[in-house]
Design goal:
The protein is mainly alpha-helical. The chain is about 60% helix and about 5% strand. It has 2 domains: about 325 residues, no CATH class; about 110 residues, no CATH class. Helix 6 packs antiparallel against helix 13. The longest helix has 30 residues. It is globular, with a radius of gyration of 24 Å. The relative contact order is 0.11.
Length: about 525
Amino acid sequence: MSAPWEVGPRPGLVLLVLLAGGIFLYLQLFILPATPRAAVGDQSIYLHSAARMDAGQLIYRDYDAFTLPGTDVLYAVLFRLFGVKAWIPQVMLLFVGVMSSWLSVKICAKIMSGSAVFLPGLLFLTLPYTSYLDATHHLYSALAATSALAVAIEGRTTAHLAWAGALWGLGTCFTQSLMLGPLVMALFLVWEHCRRKGPRTALFKKEGSLLASYAATVAAFNSYFVWKVGPKQFVYYTVTFIARYFSSYEIGTWKTYMLGWPSTHNWANWPDLIGWPVIHLLIPLVYLLFFVRYWREWRLRPQEPWEPLMLLNVTGLCLFLTIASAPAWNRLYTVSLPALIMLIWFLNSPFRLERALLRSSWAIVFILAIGRPIVTQTRWKALLDLPTGRTAFLDPALYQETKWLQERTHPTEYFFGDQLLCFALELQNPSRVAYVTPFGFTRPEEIRNVIQTLELHKVRFVSWYPGLDDPADAEGNNLGPLRSYLQSHYHVAERFTNGHTMWERNDSATSLSVTHS
């Protein structure tokens, strides 16, 4: 007789749940009837870079980047197919969210039964995922890792493991720290082999299938870029630069853990008052608690699917370790799906407290599924017809800044300082970097390149945000020469309510006659 979790949910019900999740996400990502939200956040870096790639530039050769090329290539391909459009990142967020929910159901069906199989995916969509709608490399690498888990949890044949290795490899092409994934899965195979006491040759075949497929995928994807820019340049940006300078960035250290408590001033962020502490409490605690429970119960409860549970647990722990050097809340949100699955497995028991918490989780899903779209659709918004298409802005300051610059520029004009404005208005960035920071993460040679290209192209407008005004003598702050250059060649043309300033070149033929103090 099959265990309850081996039967799985009915396909029709799965389809209905996924459709509901898709509608929920659409109402979060688009203002009715079909206007995409502005692509705020770190995703604008990759959209801006992909637009450069679509225009013929090459990552590492023509512009700087510290991740492997996966995200840039993905968006560049979409831009080549559909044009540089504002709706593309929003559709990708919709796709990734629905896929994550579907994969969650597939994984949950191997370890639990009943309606609980739907709960982790829906909880993920309505709480952490919707709180961080930012289509960055972390999002795609986490999807690839979840896909690898879903394939491997179905079975550990050589074919399954070859597919899992390829998916881990694909994820690594977005975020290189994901190289930890196949190593953790390989260790799991050793543990499973010891548990089952099978022949060693079978283990060697499985390990070889997993690791060879992984290595082949990474090599095939990146070989073109290594050939074009050279191994030394490729290794510098993807390995050396990160090792030397990423920790100098304020968001690049372990100290980001438990920072960034959501503001209570914006009522649209109130769901984060639940999500933020829950995710920080779960990760990595839930994985450690599973090890304790396994140690105590695996002999007493042999009917439990311990092997799929262990695979799920070590995969989730692995995803945490890939971001553990800089565990900011947004990165934790991105890798939180395995932790939520483990949580619901813990709560899916006959005990009174666990059942109460399980019902509370369902209540949170239903409340957020109704409330969040209503908030998004009824809150303040403004629309602009941009070169990338009609776009909705939910932030008044960003709307004012974009509108102000749109009225004074035209597509293909040079502009520096804000990658989102470059992408949305189809402006050209003359320099190698998308933005600068007041930390050692921004190197002196990059500042020299910015100054040289501003001078070479007589760039009319430069955007500046308040954080760049940190003391010039602060450790790692290399902005002094750029600040001096702006003060001698530019003037402040406009100040916006978010503290951003727009500098205009003094010798611009169409310079504004009024300068705001």
